Structure formats: C-alpha cells, structure tokens
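Let us work through a complete example step by step.
Step 1: write down the sequence.
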Amino acid sequence: MKISVHELKQIQLNRQHLTAKSDKITVCRDLNGLQAQIMVNVFHSLKIRCGEKITKQNFGGGLVKNWTVRGTVHAFAADDLGLFMYETDRRPYRSEEWKGCISGITGEWIISPERQGYFSHIILDSLKERIRTRDELKELCISRGITNRELNEMFCPWGGGMQYLCSRGFIYYVVQEKKAFALCPPFEPMNGEEAKLEMMRRYFTHIAPATVKDAAYYFDWSQTYVKEAMQKLPLMQIETDGKTYYYLEELKSDYPDIPRCILLAGFDQLMLGYQKKESMYLSRENLRGIFNLAGIILPPVLLDGKIVGKWQKKNSKLTFTLFESILEKDKQAIIQAGESLWDDIKKIEWQ
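Step 2: predict the structure and record it as tokens.
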C-alpha cells in the first residue's frame, strides 16, 4: 500500500499523541519514556500530548528518571522499571560488585572498589529516611571523608558512582527540576533481549511507521540487529516517497489533520524517533538550527507539518527564530499556539 507524505505525518503525529491526547503514564509508556536531559522538556512534551492538566507540580507523579534508550536519561512510568532497567552481565540487578574507577592517564585509583562501596552504602542508608538532593548527598559524603577526586567520580554528571547505583536498580532520579534521588522499589528486571523486543514493539506501534534506518537511529543499534529483531514482530508495511515504512497494529481509515502549529519540546520524540538527516519534518539545510553541535536538540516550531524555526521562552518573553520567511497569517498561527500553552506571555520577539 502506498500513502502520501502528508498521510504518513498524520499517522505519526496521531500515534505520538500530538493529535490524540492521553494521560501522562500512557504517553510515557507508548513512547518508551521521554528524554530527560533537560527536565523542562519532559514537562513541555507532556503538556502538548496530554488531555489532563499538566503542571510543574504534578508532571512527575508516577514517573522515574534513569538511563535507558540510547544510554541517555529518560523519564518513564515507575511500573516500567523492570523493562528499562533490564538485567545484563554488565549491570546485574542490585549487584554489590563495586568496580571503582582507575585513571586512564596515571593508572591509579580515582576511587577504589572498597571506597565506592563504602560511600554507596552511606548514600543508600540516607535515602531510606527520605528523598535527598544531589547536593545533600555530596555534603553527606564530604562529612564522611570523601576526597575531591573521589567526589568528582562518585557524582560525575556523565555517570560515575551514582549512575552505577541507578543502572543496577538501587536508586533513581526523582522527576523534578532540582536533581534528587530516591530508593528504587523492588522490581523484577526483564531479560535483556525480551526487554529490547518490547521496546521495539512500542516503537513500531506508537512512533512508527518508520524505516529500518529510523529504528536504528532511535535505539542507537546497528541496522543488522534491528532487522533481525524485526523478524520477531508481526510487522506490516507501507510505501511513501519510494521508501518502505514498517509498523504494528492496523492503520485507521482516517486520522486528524496535521495541526496548524505545534510548539514541540526540546529533545522531542518527533525529532528523536526518526533518522534526523532523512526527516520529513526538518530540511537538511536547517538541521543545525535544531540539532546543534553541542548535542542539544532545541524546541522546534512545527507549522503545517514542517519545522520553520525554533522557540525559546524566558519568563514572560517568547522568542521565535525563523529559518525562512513566512506569511503574517502564519506568524499569527504561531502566536496563537504559544498563547494556548502559556497565559503569562507579555512580549513576543521574532528573529
């Protein structure tokens, strides 16, 4: 079956809950969580996808944050801990086989296994009492004699000892603006291959139709692995613009039309779900306007299914940076999209 690019966009937007609103737990489950490198993006991504009222006070309820898809931090449903924190040889569930860290330059211990275990138990014991912020845990470790070098490794922003505790099911990040940790409830980790297949099932049901390249890009897996795993799913296929797209679950006879304007979140799943260089939404010449060289995915302005710029909100000022000239009526549609999301806008700027 062949469909147009417009029809394919309608399906993808609907499956990603951009034209089919749902509750936050369903959204997070369907989309394999939401990338949470910058927490305000999780809040905004839920706000544009949920039928319920999402506020800065309630958006994290029922969710946890941990390293999952592509080795990056995501916010996902707490009930999915067993899925996303699946067990592997490299991260056995609640293993106390502390690895420590050795300097690649000097070959000396930055933090030894014994010291890592010692401070890990101090952290875990303190979290039995209550949720604690990152700063509180650092101060606690300092009071127990951790050195600056050990502290930098234990609380390394790109991993370190805290990631070890998170990835092995001891703790998780609380889904809120301020970095804080809590003890993980007990859960049964899935087998790695079964977990990956379930994530693929969700991808091909709620993010696809998608190509093999799209799926490989999304999961950061090889195309060979993706193709092999796809054989285990009852996939269907359609053709659009000379490419084959795969999906699960029958397509509906009709879908809501593409909204006039959507102000997408930074690190939005609509950007992460498909190979960025072959995106139907973002032209190649504007790629760096959204995917910058620092690894940040900026919040796009989606106008009639095409990304025409990016947006930024600071306090009561909303700034739009356009990648191309648009009509005045298009600007008004963008302004209306902003005003429907925020009621405190006092100034709008165009760049």
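Step 3: interpret the result. The first helix runs from residue 5 to 15.
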